[in-house]
Amino acid sequence: MRAPSRARRSLVTAGTAVATAALLLAGCAQDPDEQPAPGGSSADGKARTTITVGVFGAFGLQEAGLYDEYMAQNPGIRIEQTSIERNENYYPQLLTHLGTGSGLADIQAVEVNNIAEITATQADKLVDLGKAPGVDKAAYLPWKWAQGTAKGGATVGLGTDIGPQGICYRKDLFEAAGLPTDRAAVGALWAGDWNKYLEAGKAYKAKAGDGKAFVDSASGVMAAVTGSSAQRYYDDQGKVVYKTNPAVRGAFDLAASFATEGLSAKLQQFTPSWDQGFSNGAFATVSCPAWMLGYIQDKAGPAGKDKWDVAQAPKPSNWGGSFLVVPKAGKHTEEAAKLAAWLTAPAQQAKLFEKRGSFPSASAAYALPSVSGAQHAYFGGAPIGAIFAKAAESVPVTVLGPKDLVIAQNLADIGMLQVDQKGRSPQEGWEAAVKAIDNALDQ
């Protein structure tokens, strides 16, 4: 399932309210080819080196004040950021600039759905950040580090955030259906098995009655289940295997059961009707990466406070995340590598989480108070730092492929949507998705 280009949401950390959630895909649509302002001079009159950073959407680094902090610590450095609002516009330009070796920022952001293509086809054009000063491989989640590492061993992408998943649920709707509302008891309903999540949905429907949806969409379930698997659409040799991979077909069929059993609200995620569903009680649960908490708070509004809570997902799964890379064609590769290392260090990732809701990919940050003690008042004081850290540490090392996003989008929007909204059979939905994917991949 595709995530929004950059979903940056607010938290309540350690019981203290942080800024209101950033809007989806907010950001200035500047041209990354624009020439940055002159570096200027530092307080002592010496010329400053300008490091340019190219990102998509409201990436969060600038908004969290990290650039200002770095420049205060390094008066000889000036940081200039450009942002393109949507990754689908940003990424093709990045590939073009890498191909020509021009028009590149000193540091470029890469979304997780694109990192496999970057490591497979562009690694020779990027600096090995695993060797940058201050970078400690042991401080990062192994699966996230692996995603940014090319086959030759060079770690060309340093992870920023991730999207470990829980299950967000409506306590009032659970109570009305005779289900437990305590988050530990709720998590126990489906612990260890996504099929138990389906059974919980059937139990909910039996008490709540027809027309009371348990999940927002079958596609959301499919994305969460698929994200629990180490191998999805490609094998470790780079071969497309989604058609024969039982994990993918199993996820598709299980998710389709939520539609055929009448447990889905039949909504398409990130549409106005889905947004409205958070506030009007259209569904009782939603697969919920860390960044979605602020999204729910935004869409459900003040009336939803203390109605929503979050529990552990049946199995650890991830949805979302990004990386920073340093092109060799940049003007200041050495200084850029130092900055990229600093921005992705555990201490800075913890600050980004505290201020912007971006969950750290540096596991060394999980013991820091701003993460370990993080609670979300809107979700009944849920200990979100502990919940999502536990999920993140157990996510499998996933094999990524260059066209993961194409495959996932078609499985969701062509295949599952037909089952969920048009009443097609799961087999018909699967066949429609396979045909669309084959066409997209020229197979």
Automatic annotation (TrEMBL):
<keyword id="KW-0732">Signal</keyword>
<dbReference type="InterPro" id="IPR050490">
    <property type="entry name" value="Bact_solute-bd_prot1"/>
</dbReference>
<feature type="signal peptide">
    <location>
        <begin position="1"/>
        <end position="31"/>
    </location>
</feature>
<dbReference type="Pfam" id="PF13416">
    <property type="entry name" value="SBP_bac_8"/>
</dbReference>
<protein>
    <submittedName>
        <fullName>Sugar-binding protein</fullName>
    </submittedName>
</protein>
<dbReference type="InterPro" id="IPR006059">
    <property type="entry name" value="SBP"/>
</dbReference>
